[in-house]
Specification:
This protein is mainly alpha-helical. It is 77% helix and 3% strand. It has 2 domains: 1-38 and 142-280, no CATH class; 39-138. Strand 1 (172-174) and strand 2 form a beta hairpin. The termini are far apart.
Length: 280
């Protein structure tokens, strides 16, 4: 009990930072939910802008001294993939990305051979998640519900992990990658994700609530793996945050790292099992 109180009152629990996080979330969350609701051209523009900002931060992490031509080529490739994905289809955008990734790798390898693979990875990393989010929203009749379900699970994971990890602080999950990750945070995030995911699935009339619950747990785990993946590169670069665009949250990549992995996993689930199970 004393250990928990000590962790709770430690410097890691920054009231001012928590206030910033809450205010920022109260501003941004309704905007994101509105974009999902409105769909049309607004939704793909928001997604494209978000992943473009994420790519900018990713490139700074993996290759801070990257050639300007490579950076511009990476962003142009991303926007081209996202544009084709929105106007034509996510499948077409994916096929285009398969062509552009090796070209970007070869361009990056001319000056920074050691980092070229990570620079090229930025396209499937960011554009892959962007196309996945487009695919989910375009799913006939249930697209909006699927997007809200995914957001509820990912946001629930982040919030539950933050609260449980702050209140407990021990034991550490992977201190060599992320010193603030704890087992309490892992299970706390999964628990809140399951509750929120179940609630959204119920509200949108999902057919099989058992699957909705189990899938929420799986997505929560995948989301936290996405967070740790990005944290690995932050540790390599010696930075605390991927950027400073979002007050209290760091960079855009710090906010969407879990969503990136979860969105791709969710689409793969929908393609492989979702239709057969008819769970929504």
């Amino acid at each position: 009990m004393e250990r928990r109180l000590a962790a709770f009152s430690s410097a890691s629990f920054d009231i001012a930072n928590l206030r910033k996080r809450v205010i920022t979330a109260l501003v941004l969350a309704p905007l994101v939910l509105a974009a999902v609701y409105l769909g049309g051209w607004i939704y793909p523009v928001v997604i494209a802008l978000t992943v473009a900002l994420g790519l900018r931060e990713w490139l700074r992490l993996v290759d801070p001294s990257g050639n300007r031509a490579v950076v511009l080529a990476a962003h142009a490739s991303l926007l081209l993939v996202m544009g084709c994905g929105a106007v034509l289809s996510p499948s077409f955008g994916l096929a285009l990305g398969v062509v552009l990734v090796p070209m970007l790798f070869l361009l990056a390898a001319r000056d920074h051979k050691d980092q070229a693979r990570w620079v090229a990875l930025g396209i499937p990393y960011m554009a892959g998640s962007g196309l996945a989010l487009l695919y989910l929203r375009e799913t006939p009749e249930i697209g909006m519900g699927l997007c809200y379900y995914l957001l509820a699970v990912v946001w629930g994971t982040d919030t539950g992990a933050f609260l449980a990890g702050t209140l407990s602080g021990v034991p550490k999950l992977v201190p060599e990658i992320s010193p603030h990750k704890t087992w309490a945070g892992l299970f706390g995030g999964m628990a809140l994700a399951a509750v929120l995911g179940y609630g959204v699935a119920t509200g949108f009339g999902a057919r099989r609530m058992g699957i909705a619950l189990l899938l929420a747990l799986a997505l929560a785990l995948v989301s936290q793996l996405g967070d740790m993946f990005k944290s690995t590169f932050k540790r390599r670069s010696g930075v605390k945050e991927s950027g400073g665009l979002i007050p209290g949250h760091g960079g855009v990549l710090d906010r969407i790292d879990g969503l990136v992995f979860a969105a791709i996993f969710f689409v793969l689930f929908q393609i492989a099992l979702g239709a057969q199970m008819q769970w929504w």
